[in-house]
Amino acid sequence: MEAGFSEMRNELQSRDALWRRIQLECQQLHTELLKISEYKDMQEIQIKHQSSCVQLTEQLENKNTELLLLAQSQEHQREELNKIRNHLYREEQSHRSEQERMKTEISDLTEELHQKEITIATIMEKASLLERQLKMELEIKDKLLAKQQLLDFRYRVIKSENTHLKEMV
Asked: What main location does UniProt list (predicted)?
């Protein structure tokens, strides 16, 4: 887009230089006309000169019209460019704020995850401790059960012996 503006600016400068040359040529032709006015063909030269000036003036007016249209187009393009830049700036700001929001959210979630990991580690440690305690209690209960069964067995044996001895007596 900048290249287009640069081309338009160069075209305007080129046409301005052309306009100055045309004015200079008009002045030169006018000077010639004054010199030639003493001659007999003065009328014909004046007509040619006027015709040439009229043509040059018409060409110049056409060029001026084109330049004005180009200038208007350039102004419109500048306005559009400014609108695009403003929109792009707003989009960049929106994107930055969204990134900041996401960074904050990620940071909060990371902190929450860290807290949960600590909680899980604590629970796992307590569970491991409880598991060891339960194993110890089970071992104790198994031993007590085995003793109980042994005592039960002895009791039955003694009871059986007692019954047998009573029968004998």
From this structure: cytoplasm
